[in-house]
TrEMBL record:
Keyword annotations: Antiport, Cell membrane, Ion transport, Membrane, Transmembrane, Transmembrane helix, Transport
UniProt keyword Iron-sulfur, yes or no: no
Compartment(s) where it occurs, according to its Swiss-Prot or TrEMBL record: Cell membrane
Gene Ontology terms: biological process: monoatomic ion transport
Protein's recorded name: Probable multidrug resistance protein NorM
A Gene Ontology cellular-component term: plasma membrane
InterPro entries xrefs: MATE_fam, MATE_MdtK, MdtK-like
Spans traversing the lipid bilayer: 20-43, 49-70, 98-116, 136-157, 169-189, 201-224, 268-287, 293-315, 327-346, 366-385, 397-420, 426-446
């Protein structure tokens, strides 16, 4: 066990970080590409289908907070156990992560099935939109345990230093999804005479759950057959360990609240943007997809860095954990700076990728030029902040988000839009201010060093 657990604890930390992060980055980028393609296909059904899927997704992120809580907890628990060389505890934590997350997902799915229609009713009363949302949503909710467990399989492998197999799993799932989408959604496969199932929005959801189930099955078989790092057992999967399960709920709770808080702040932000008209809202929607895509490499680096830091802390190698976080922050800053330069120089071309409306493009140009440079600060903050999920000390992320979004940005947006009636440029500028505050808070928490002594 000592030989395998030393893989990421020795040698060049930069190579180690890239070894874990690059496959993860590639997998997430491909997933982001699929999400964009998926919405393009849905857009060919009808605007009602797009609206229905969008509304369901808005509701669905509420339960995704549970996935964030347990997933964040599992990163520190698995990586620290593995880094300390405790094979028995590592296996037990992996088993409990899969079982407990599936159990929580079952409970959440039951609640969502009975509350979905009333929740959707808050957003729309149009029959076609509501039908699309329900067609798409019910099957996604039914397969929620598989979705949660699929995420956990990949997280477990990454925390053990195995990033390539999760990447392959994500590639397989994305390819299957991209192929099945048009086959299930339309009467004929677009551009061919191949007959399709013509299931509309339900077909899109069906393609997603099939690819997710295949992805989970592949990862689960890998873990149950065993690797040179860990081998889980069926017996362990049917036994709950409350001591570990309690930690799975509590360690990542600040991360879950942070995700909930950030999403709620986004809803309020969109409300303020809507005061400037449809073009601004459309630009903001495009911006959201663009920023999510741009952040995919960052997510890969942060996940890789968190796993390595967790292993380093488990092995009591504080200095290596600190150096890993610094390099992750630098790498993130460089990547996002390059993306920012491209966006600043070619904002119109970037907007044209998503839309042809000249009015939306005009609004979006200023948004891109002002907001995207702030992503460099966000990337650096996330790099340094990878010490928090790695250590299990997740409160700093929560504080930085609450203060920057609710203490700074939302009040600032109210002042700009409701009191001073300034142009939309000041709305975009609020993101730079909020991201700067968030970066400062994360840096202070990193330097304070509480994470260095935190163990789970």
């Amino acid at each position: 066990m000592a030989q395998t657990s030393d893989e990421l604890l020795t040698g060049d930390l930069r190579k180690n970080l890239l070894k874990v992060s690059v496959p993860t980055m590639f997998g997430f980028v491909l997933q982001a590409v699929y999400d964009i393609v998926d919405m393009i296909w849905i857009g060919r059904i009808s605007s009602s289908a797009v609206a229905g899927v969008t509304i369901f997704s808005t509701v669905f992120w509420i339960v995704s907070v549970l996935n964030e809580i347990i997933g964040s907890s599992s990163i520190s628990l698995i990586s620290q156990s593995y880094g300390s060389g405790d094979n028995e505890r590592t296996v037990k934590v992996v088993e409990q992560t899969l079982t407990f997350k599936a159990l929580v997902a079952i409970i959440a799915a039951i609640i969502m099935i009975f509350t979905l229609k009333p929740l959707l009713g808050f957003f729309t009363n149009e029959p076609e939109v509501l039908k699309s949302a329900l067609d798409y949503g019910y099957i996604r909710i039914f397969f929620l345990p598989i979705m949660f467990s699929s995420y956990s399989v990949n997280t477990c492998l990454r925390c053990l230093g195995d990033a390539k197999r999760p990447m392959y799993i994500m590639i397989i799932a994305a390819i299957i999804n991209i192929f099945l989408d048009p086959l299930f959604m339309f009467s004929h496969f677009p551009g061919t005479n191949i007959p399709g199932l013509n299931l509309g929005a339900f077909g899109a959801a069906l393609a997603t759950v099939i690819s997710t189930t295949i992805a989970f099955s592949i990862g689960f078989i890998i873990l149950i057959r065993g690797t040179d790092k860990v081998k889980i057992t069926l017996k362990g999967l049917f036994t709950l360990d409350w001591k570990i399960d309690k930690k799975l709920l509590t360690i990542g709770l600040p991360s879950g609240i942070e995700v909930l808080s950030r999403n709620l702040a986004s809803v309020f932000t969109l409300k303020f943007v809507s005061l400037y008209g449809t073009n601004a809202v459309a630009a903001m929607g495009i911006g959201g997809r663009l920023f999510n895509f741009a952040f995919m490499p960052i997510f890969g680096i942060v996940m890789g860095s968190s796993a390595i830091i967790g292993q380093c802390l488990g092995a009591e190698n504080i200095e290596r954990a600190r150096d890993t976080a610094r390099f992750a922050a630098l790498l993130n800053f460089i990547i996002m700076s390059i993306i920012s330069i491209v966006a600043i120089l070619f904002p119109q071309q970037v907007m044209k990728i998503f839309i042809d409306d000249p009015n939306v493009i005009e609004v979006g140009k200023s948004m891109i030029q002002i907001m995207i440079p702030a992503l460099a600060l966000g990337g650096a903050a996330m790099g340094l902040g990878s010490v928090f999920p790695g250590s299990g000390h997740n409160i700093p992320f929560l504080l930085s988000s609450l203060i920057s979004r609710w203490g700074v940005q939302i009040p600032l947006l109210f002042l700009v839009t409701r009191v001073l009636n300034l142009s939309v440029l000041y709305v975009w500028g609020s993101f730079i201010i909020a991201d700067t505050i968030e970066m400062i808070i994360v840096y202070i928490a990193y330097k304070k060093g509480t994470w260095e002594t935190k163990r789970v």
